[in-house]
């Protein structure tokens, strides 16, 4: 039927899109496992703490971003407001920690 | 009988308010509770002023003075100003954006009852071992070593009401982001909605600092923690930081919605659109942004060092810029307008110079070096009363009078409103203008007594006389409220000839607000329809079934549970049983809520067609 062609096209488009998303999911999932292994590996191998701690923190931050953007769909449209709120919250929290670190604890 | 009109007896009406999830009724609950606590805080203020009417006065004891002073500040900020802000937000924001309710009606009700029980908890302290006595800021280590249970009541009471406020803030963020009517873009939102939105964002980011601080205080006092005890390796300054990281955004949470009220009142009664709408929005956001990096200006004398003091001083002075933008925009809105001196407008006109004075003393206090002279003197007391009373309270009363017809369908007596304004306004300046000079002459704040013949006697007497004027003004307002509601003369949906969406529906609005979703064609949508259309808002959707939430008693029970548990945690020993019962009630209510599928109900299209009128101007 005539209108079925249209929905077939749509279906094909979505199938392609979902396939791509699946690829991203698996890729980020694999990377997150790798990151975790690296983090544990660094500790087990007793690499200097001065090196290990920043690396683990960076890996953690990247994993959080993977989680938010790929698994919680912040990379899709319509998530501008949540993103704005999250970043404003991070900004307020960072400001607090930075100020306390410099004026109270330093 | 139609599906939407019901008459009920007193018991049924009470039950209706205890279980309501309707934003308009929750607004009324906030209003009633807020005015009750405002009167309570006002009585405490009168006790303070009577004590200070003459030197060496023995009207109240030193300990009681400390308690009254602490509770005056705490009550006015947390239990009077905050709920009155939420009263206006609940009553107005959903109507201004063309929504049928807030995003989470159940959470809205929960927010109110948490606030209410927190407030009751704080005031129960009067009857149990005495009220909190460490000042509204509860600085450690004084608050740690304060005897009795006063400060415990402060920590736990504010914790409970703080949960409610946080929920309310989140609710309004989601409402404004998701529930705007077709055509209501962000840059078409009325300024009150904008400021309510930004204030909610501030609540979301600022209240967690208070929550953390109060938990630490609770654990220090009740469970042997030592966060703030230097002798045990704690740090008393951390409390001050946490308190003001919350506390400074808090003053913007209060003042921004008041700015929003004036930004509605002034265009309506100057019959002009708001001058510089987009710069007003920009200034609001900028104030919120800067509001998070100025908290240490409350702590200049703590000894943070010259670099930290300078940074915070500059950031603080920077806030004067967006605030100045707002003041000039209001003045330019008035410029060339056809001004009607209704009572909300008179409040707005009184606000502009008063708040500007408060802003000027604010810049004086912001210069760190000079602040060492002003710190903890009556100069500071005068400053923050100029911004809180001259800004927030005048704004709240302007808003309450302006939206009274929308909330109750009646009109407060204009003559009495003017009497209220002049008594309150003159009394305010008598009370607080002179306190600037008391402060400069060296009178410290929070002191129970002052000595005779130090040049302080006359000014303190004048200040107390001013306080009585304010009290009489407030009594006139309450009298006005009572006679207006007793007479109950109904008014139309748009008694002020106003500009925004809430005035397009009857007063008070039907419980579903808008029969059909309104179509918004620009800023000041009703005014656009009045000047370019037929004076009625056009619907954006055809008439259909309306989905409504069911009433629920669960929020009341959840809050009651925390209220009971608070006493158990505080008194411990055998009282732990109270904590078990209280937390049991709360957890049980939450479980009940989780397992019960409450999908609400529908108002059917056929019943809506039976309703009189078309849902537009009554």
From TrEMBL, chain A:
| Principal EC category | oxidoreductase
Q: What family is this protein classified in?
A: Belongs to the cytochrome c oxidase bacterial subunit 4 family.
Annotated EC: 1.9.3.1
Species whose genome carries this gene: Filobacillus milosensis
Q: Name one GO molecular function term.
A: cytochrome bo3 ubiquinol oxidase activity
Q: Which UniProt keywords apply?
A: Cell membrane, Membrane, Oxidoreductase, Transmembrane, Transmembrane helix
Which membrane topology describes this protein? Multi-pass membrane protein
The answer to whether UniProt assigns keyword Oxidoreductase to this entry is: yes
Instruction: Report what the protein is called.
Output: Cytochrome c oxidase subunit IVB
Membrane-spanning parts: 26-45, 51-72, 84-105
Classify the main location. Answer: membrane
What are the BP-aspect GO terms?
aerobic electron transport chain; electron transport coupled proton transport
Acetylation as UniProt keyword: no
Q: Which InterPro entries match?
A: Cyt_c_oxidase_su4_bacillaceae, Cyt_c_oxidase_su4_prok, Cytochrome_c_oxidase_bac_sub4
Cellular component, GO annotation? cytochrome o ubiquinol oxidase complex; plasma membrane
Q: Where in the cell is it found?
A: Cell membrane
From TrEMBL, chain B:
Q: Which GO terms describe its biological process?
A: electron transport coupled proton transport; oxidative phosphorylation; respiratory electron transport chain
Instruction: Cite the EC number.
Output: 7.1.1.9
Per the record, the pathway is:
Energy metabolism; oxidative phosphorylation
Entry's localization field: Cell membrane
Pfam families per the record?
A: COX1
PROSITE patterns for this protein: COX1 (PS50855), COX1_CUB (PS00077)
UniProt keyword terms in alphabetical order: Cell membrane, Copper, Electron transport, Heme, Iron, Membrane, Metal-binding, Oxidoreductase, Respiratory chain, Translocase, Transmembrane, Transmembrane helix, Transport
A GO molecular function for this record?
cytochrome-c oxidase activity
The record describes its membrane topology as: Multi-pass membrane protein
Under InterPro entries, the record lists: Cyt_c_oxase-like_su1_dom (IPR023616), Cyt_c_oxase-like_su1_sf (IPR036927), Cyt_C_Oxase_1 (IPR000883), Cyt_c_Oxase_su1_BS (IPR023615), Cyt_c_oxidase_su1_bac (IPR014241)
Catalyses which reaction(s): 4 Fe(II)-[cytochrome c] + O2 + 8 H(+)(in) = 4 Fe(III)-[cytochrome c] + 2 H2O + 4 H(+)(out)
This protein's record includes keyword Secreted: no
PANTHER family given in the database record: CYTOCHROME C OXIDASE SUBUNIT 1
Q: What family is reported?
A: Belongs to the heme-copper respiratory oxidase family.
Q: What does this protein do?
A: Cytochrome c oxidase is the component of the respiratory chain that catalyzes the reduction of oxygen to water. Subunits 1-3 form the functional core of the enzyme complex. CO I is the catalytic subunit of the enzyme. Electrons originating in cytochrome c are transferred via the copper A center of subunit 2 and heme A of subunit 1 to the bimetallic center formed by heme A3 and copper B.
Q: What is this protein called?
A: Cytochrome c oxidase subunit 1
Q: Which organism is it from?
A: Filobacillus milosensis
Q: What lineage, starting at the top, does this entry show? A: Bacteria, Bacillati, Bacillota, Bacilli, Bacillales
């Amino acid at each position: 039927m005539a209108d079925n062609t249209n929905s077939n096209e749509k279906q094909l488009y979505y199938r392609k899109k979902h396939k791509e998303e699946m690829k991203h999911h698996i890729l980020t999932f694999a990377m997150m496992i790798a990151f975790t292994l690296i983090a544990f590996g660094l500790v087990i191998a007793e690499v200097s703490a001065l090196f290990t701690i920043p690396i683990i923190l960076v890996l953690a931050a990247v994993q959080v971003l993977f989680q938010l953007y790929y698994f919680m769909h912040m990379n899709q449209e319509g998530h501008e407001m949540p993103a704005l709120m999250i970043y404003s919250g991070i900004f307020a929290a960072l400001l607090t920690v930075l100020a306390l670190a410099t004026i109270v604890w330093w | 009988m139609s599906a939407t009109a019901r008459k009920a007896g007193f018991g049924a009406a009470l039950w209706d308010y205890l279980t309501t999830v309707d934003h308009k009724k929750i607004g009324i609950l906030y209003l009633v509770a807020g005015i009750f606590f405002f009167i309570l805080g006002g009585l405490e203020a009168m006790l303070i002023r009577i004590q200070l009417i003459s030197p060496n006065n023995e009207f109240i004891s030193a300990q009681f003075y400390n308690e009254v002073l602490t509770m005056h500040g705490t009550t006015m900020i947390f239990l009077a100003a905050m709920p009155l802000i939420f009263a206006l937000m609940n009553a107005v924001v959903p109507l201004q954006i063309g929504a049928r309710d807030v995003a989470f009606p159940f959470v809205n009700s929960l927010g109110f009852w948490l606030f209410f029980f927190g407030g009751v908890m704080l005031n129960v302290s009067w009857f149990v071992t005495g009220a909190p006595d460490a000042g509204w800021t509860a600085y450690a280590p004084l608050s740690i070593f304060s005897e009795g249970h006063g400060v415990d009541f402060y920590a736990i009471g504010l914790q409970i009401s703080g949960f409610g406020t946080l929920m309310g803030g989140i609710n309004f963020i989601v409402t404004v982001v998701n529930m705007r009517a077709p055509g209501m873009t962000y840059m078409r939102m009325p300024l009150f909605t904008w400021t309510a939105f930004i204030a909610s964002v501030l609540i979301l980011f600022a209240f967690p600092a208070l929550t953390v601080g109060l938990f630490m205080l609770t654990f220090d006092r009740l469970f042997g923690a030592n966060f703030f005890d230097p002798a045990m390796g704690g740090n008393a300054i951390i409390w001050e930081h946490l308190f003001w990281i919350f506390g400074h955004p808090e003053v913007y949470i209060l003042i921004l919605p008041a700015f929003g009220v004036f930004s509605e009142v002034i265009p309506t009664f100057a019959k002009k659109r708001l001058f510089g709408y987009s710069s007003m929005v920009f200034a609001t956001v900028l104030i919120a942004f800067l509001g998070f990096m100025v908290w240490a200006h409350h702590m200049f004398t703590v000894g943070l060092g010259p670099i930290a003091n300078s940074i915070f001083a500059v950031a603080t002075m920077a806030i004067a810029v967006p605030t100045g933008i707002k003041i000039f925009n209001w003045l330019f809105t008035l410029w060339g307008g056809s001004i009607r001196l209704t009572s909300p407008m008179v409040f707005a006109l009184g606000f502009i110079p008063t708040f500007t004075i408060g802003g000027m003393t604010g810049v004086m206090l912001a210069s760190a070096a000079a602040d060492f002279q002003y710190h903890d003197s009556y100069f500071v007391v005068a400053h923050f009363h100029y911004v809180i009373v001259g800004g927030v309270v005048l704004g709240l009363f302007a808003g309450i009078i302006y939206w009274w017809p929308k909330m109750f369908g009646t009109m407060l007596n204009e003559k009495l409103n003017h009497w209220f304004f002049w008594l309150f306004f003159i009394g305010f300046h008598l009370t607080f203008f002179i306190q600037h000079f008391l402060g400069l002459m060296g009178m410290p704040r929070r002191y129970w007594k002052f000595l005779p013949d130090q040049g302080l006697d006359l000014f303190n007497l004048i200040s107390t006389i001013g306080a009585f004027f304010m009290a009489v003004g407030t009594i006139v307002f309450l009298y006005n409220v009572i006679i207006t509601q007793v007479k109950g003369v109904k008014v139309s949906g748009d008694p002020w000839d106003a500009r925004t969406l809430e005035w397009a529906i009857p007063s008070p609005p039907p419980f579903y607000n808008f029969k059909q979703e309104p179509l918004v064609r620009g800023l000041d949508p009703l005014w656009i329809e009045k000047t370019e259309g037929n004076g009625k808002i056009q619907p954006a959707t055809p008439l259909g079934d309306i989905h409504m939430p069911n009433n629920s008693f669960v929020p009341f029970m959840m809050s009651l549970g925390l209220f009971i548990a608070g006493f158990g945690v505080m008194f411990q020993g055998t009282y732990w049983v109270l904590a078990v019962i209280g937390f049991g009630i709360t957890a049980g209510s939450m479980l009940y809520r989780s397992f019960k599928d409450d999908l609400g109900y529908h108002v059917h299209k056929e019943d809506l067609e039976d309703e009189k009128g078309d849902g537009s101007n009554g």
